[in-house]
Every structure is written in structure tokens, then in C-alpha cells.
Specification:
Layout lengths: L4 H8 L10 H12 L9 E7 L2 E7 L7 E6 L9 H15 L2 E5 L11 H22 L11 E7 L1 H11 L3 H4 L2 E7 L10 H4 L10 H11 L26 E6 L5 H13 L4 E6 L14 H15 L5 H13 L1
Parallel strand pairs: 3-4, 3-5, 5-6, 6-7, 7-8
Antiparallel strand pairs: 1-2, 2-4
Length: 325
């Protein structure tokens, strides 16, 4: 498969929000660009209410009975949907051999912070209870299995996912096996270099688009709240934090914040891996019809969860083979 960067960037720019774009138009554009009639990998999808929140429950052909994946979608806090993220989450569910839950949480500006977070908290509690019940009724004879949750999110969804984590009691936090963040938005504070420097941008987003997103999400007094800007979290919120894996492109305005977040966790003895893909733009993983790297990136996450050998060297070897073909 030959890479088509121009087409990939054009598709991903549908994620871009600006004052010139009506929010209803952004939602429509994202759904049109990322929805699919057929889901990959022969996964099944059903709608279910979890804590009063509509969720897609996406089940691959084979999945671990004690593990679920909770995905918090991006969309600049104002857009994104189950429809638009269903294909991507289906690919992740298949790669990680996990049943995936994709909640349709409330969106700003009609439902500002903390409405979406409350929906996610309710959905998490319900799916966790469901998983515990399923394990208690399991007939496979393995009574030692414990519930495992994979928490994944992208861009603005990373703020919501980490806010969920910050508020979890230890009994629930200890069940989070892995946090996976794609191009995370981590700091909306006014002193962030992204906002103070002139004309900060990458191939998809600009600092102005991120600022406009947070203005729609919550009032300025909340921008330094750790439940909004995770980079402002103190030691108490990061105590006993689960392993974090951040995957992003080399050409992102969010890179510096990700480096700082990694340093925060590592300074507290917590595990945080930053996986930066050379030459890639934000959310390149969602342009899989144009970029071979998108497939490799999802496969690498699958290997992380299922403990397969998927070193950086093996990624390069597969990439070279794809380019030769």
C-alpha cells in the first residue's frame, strides 16, 4: 500500500474546529469522514445502555473474558460520535482481543463540563459491574481471573479519560491495566507555550482551534482544573497510576505536553511510554486507508496488550515490506 499523505491530511482536517465552522457542520463532517457501513475484522456491534448512557458494545471474534476496552472519543469536546469512531474502535478491539465499549456522552456547548465526564463515570461503573458479574458466573473454572479495563482516548477525549481516572477509588483504579492515549490534549492553561507562542500549528490542528474548543467546553476559571487540564494534576491524583502509553505523530503541537506528562509520571515512579511516529500527523491512526503506518500503529497497541513481540525494529521491517509491495 502506497502512502497518500495529502489524502490523509485532508481527511483528518475534518477534526478541526474554528469559529468559522458551525458546530453542527463539524459534527456532520466528522460523521461523514469517519463512519463506515461495514466494520473491519468481522466484529459484532450492539447498542446497550450502561448507567443510562448509550454505548456501542463491540465484540471481536475472539476476546478475553476478563478484559474490556473503554474508549473515550475526541472531537474537540463538541463533536465526535459512536458512528464516527466505531470503525477505529472496532480495529482496536480486534487487535487487543477485547470487548470494547464506546459511550455516546453529552457534548459541549449545550452540555459543558462536567456533563460528559459524568456520563463516562456512569458508563464505567456499569460496565465494570457487568464485567464482575460475568466473571462470577463464568464456567471456565478460572476463579483467579480479575477484571481488567483498558482505558483509551484521543485528543480532547484524553482530558475526559484522565479525569475519570483521577476520580476513581483505588479498587477501581487498580483494575485499569493500561491507559492508551492518542495525540492527547493535556493542558489548556493560558500560560501553555502552545497558546503564548505565535502561529502554533501542525498539519491538522492550530493552537487557536484548541483554544476555541476549550472555550466551548468550560469557562476560563476551570482551564487549570486537573479534571480539564491533566498536566496540572498533583501527586495525590497520580498516586498508584496505571501504566500509560502515548502514541502520536512526530509533527504535533501536543508533543511538548506529552513529554511533560511522561516526565511527571516517571518522576513518581510510574510507567509512561511515549511512542512517536516519524513524519506523522495527529490521529494518523484514523487514516488507515491512506497510511500504512496507521495499521502498524494499531497492531503495535495490540501487541502491547496481548504481549506479542512487536519491537520498533519489527515495525520498521514490516513498513519496508509494505513499501516494497
Amino acid at each position: 500500500m502506497n502512502n497518500d499523505r495529502r489524502a490523509a491530511v485532508k481527511k483528518l482536517k475534518n477534526l478541526y474546529l474554528s469559529p468559522k465552522i458551525e458546530i453542527a457542520d463539524l459534527r456532520r463532517r466528522i460523521d461523514e469522514a469517519f463512519s463506515a457501513v461495514f466494520l473491519p475484522n468481522n466484529v459484532d456491534c450492539e447498542e446497550r445502555l450502561c448507567g443510562g448512557v448509550k454505548c456501542d458494545v463491540i465484540s471481536p471474534v475472539m476476546f478475553s473474558s476478563n478484559r474490556v476496552l473503554l474508549y473515550i472519543h475526541g472531537g474537540s469536546f463538541v463533536a465526535g460520535s459512536r458512528s464516527s469512531y466505531r470503525p477505529f474502535v472496532a480495529a482496536l478491539a480486534n487487535a487487543t482481543a477485547s470487548k470494547a465499549y464506546l459511550p455516546e456522552f453529552r457534548l459541549a456547548p449545550a452540555h459543558p463540563f462536567p456533563a460528559g465526564l459524568e456520563d463516562i463515570q456512569n458508563a464505567f461503573q456499569a460496565l465494570f459491574a457487568e464485567l464482575e458479574t460475568a466473571l462470577s458466573m463464568s464456567s471456565d473454572g478460572d476463579s483467579e481471573k480479575k477484571p481488567e479495563v483498558l482505558l483509551m482516548a484521543d485528543t480532547s477525549g484524553a482530558s475526559l479519560a484522565l479525569a475519570l481516572l483521577f476520580g476513581l477509588k483505588e479498587e477501581f483504579r487498580s483494575a485499569i491495566r493500561q491507559v492508551v492515549l492518542f495525540s492527547p490534549w493535556l493542558d489548556f492553561s493560558p500560560e501553555n507555550d502552545m497558546f503564548t507562542s505565535k502561529k502554533v500549528s501542525d498539519e491538522v490542528f492550530t493552537a487557536d482551534s484548541v483554544r476555541y474548543s476549550i472555550e466551548n467546553y468550560t469557562h476560563k476559571e476551570n482551564w487549570q482544573n486537573p479534571l480539564v487540564s491533566p498536566l496540572k494534576a498533583g501527586r495525590d491524583l497520580l498516586f498508584n497510576f496505571p501504566p500509560v502509553y502515548i502514541q502520536m505523530g512526530e509533527k504535533e503541537i501536543f508533543y511538548d505536553d506529552a513529554v511533560m506528562f511522561q516526565a511527571m509520571l516517571r518522576n513518581l515512579g510510574r510507567k509512561c511510554e511515549l511512542d512517536v511516529w516519524k513524519g506523522m500527523m495527529p490521529m494518523f491512526q484514523m487514516a488507515d486507508e491512506y497510511l500504512s503506518e496507521a495499521h502498524l500503529a494499531v497492531e503495535k497497541i495490540g501487541a502491547l496488550i496481548t504481549a506479542k513481540d512487536y519491537s520498533d525494529e519489527s515495525v520498521r521491517e514490516i513498513q519496508l515490506e509494505l513499501e516494497r509491495n
